[in-house]
Each structure stands twice: as C-alpha cells, then as structure tokens.
C-alpha cells in the first residue's frame, strides 16, 4: 500500500490490521524531513509505525538517494540548484499551473525501486493499493501504473469517503493524523497558507525561501515570476501587517494518489 501518512492511508492501515483489506506491506516515501509537514513525519514515527508493528504489518520508510548514495530531498534539490531544478508545481504569471516532477521522482520512482527490489516485474506485477476515497474518484488512474505494478483502490471498493476515515482511525485508538503535504506545495487553500503564516512560522519561512529562490533564477534568465498560490503575488507579501485575503475556496487535491493521502 502506498502510505502517505494522511487520513486515507492511515485508515487503510487500520483496515489492514483488522483484516478488512489484504495488505501487509505499507511503503512511505519520505520526500524529506525538510520538505514534508513535520507533523506528518512525527505521526508516522510515533503512531503509525508502532501500530503497524503491533499488528504484524511492515511499514517501511523510503528516501530518494543520488548515484553517490546521498539522500536527496525536494527542498535540497531546489535550493542546491539555486532554483534551476524547479521540481514542484507552481502557478505561472497567467495563473496557469506549471510542470512538475516531484511526485514522479520522490514518490513513484522511490516506491518503484523498492517494489522491484522485492521481486516486482512486468511478469510478476505488484498489487499496489492507493489511498483514494470515493469522494476523490476522479483521481483514480489505473492506466498510469508502471509495468511492474497494478494499481487498486480498496477504499473505493469499500465505498468509503474521506469523512469515514476519522471513525476508522479512532476505532483503533489512534489520534488523527495531520494533513500530509510539502511545506511549499501550492496545492492548498489560502486559508491553509494563512494558518501556516500565523501558527507555523518556520514552515512559512521555508516556503517563502523556495518561492524566492525559484524567482531569483527566473529573473536571472529574464523569465516572468512564478507563485505558490493563484493570487499572483509573492507568498511573503500575502499577509503583511496582519492583513487577510478573501479566503477563496480553491480546488484542492493532487491529481494522483501518491500525495496527500
């Protein structure tokens, strides 16, 4: 099972422990302790891993490594390249979304290497559960599976919605996990950015540094700026002086099941 550390994949972990779904291996691709929500990392280590071990389930944490054997994170890739390797989704000056490679490089590829190490191949495909619930059925993309895997959606098969996950998680005596996402992921609502600005200044500063770094590189090349929100203004300027933007209810959710589950 692709474990993201959020509501859906934690509910799936509980269902596996209860024997409702048949998954004994959960793979958590950590995109970086300097990139992922630190509360998610803490939850995985302090709650999800002990719970999995107590129920005979293998929950494995994975990282992306370079050819030199060094751990690579999304944040370090962007900062060490001085913004040349954008990696994350951004909004262009015209409000349109830009390209990205974060999910492929830091989730899909990392998990894929582990699956193949364990014997998955085009002739012996691994069954990979995705934490997409019924209310997010539009994110189902079984055709996006790699040759060594078959993607399945057990929460949808059970007709479970995201709103069903809290009762499942609490039934196991577990606290609710936080929302999983990178600190600088643009796929979040303005209200979430404001909450980060007001209550998690270290995460907010990290997101601002990423946006600043990307735009310093764009300026050097004579390109227009990019943004982490649809507002079309630098992130660090959004809530100056305690000002509050109209909290527009933006669309939310990654377009696949590898993130934010």
Largest sheet: 2 strands, parallel
Structural class: mainly alpha
Q: Give the strand line-up of the largest sheet.
A: 1-2
Give a count of the beta strands, DSSP E runs of length 2 or more.
6
Described by the principal axes of the CA atoms, the overall outline is: globular
What are the low-pLDDT stretches, counting only 5+ consecutive residues below 50? none
- How many helices? The count is 8
pLDDT average, as an integer?
Answer: 92
Radius of gyration: 19 Å
Characterization of the model:
This protein has 261 residues and is mostly helical. It is built from eight helices and six strands. It has helices spanning 7-17, 38-54, 74-80, 102-117, 154-157, 165-171, 190-199, 201-220, and strands at 25-29, 58-62, 64-65, 71-72, 126-129, 149-152. Helix 1 packs across helix 6 and helix 7 crosses helix 8 (201-220).
Key structural traits:
261 residues, mainly alpha, two-stranded parallel ribbon
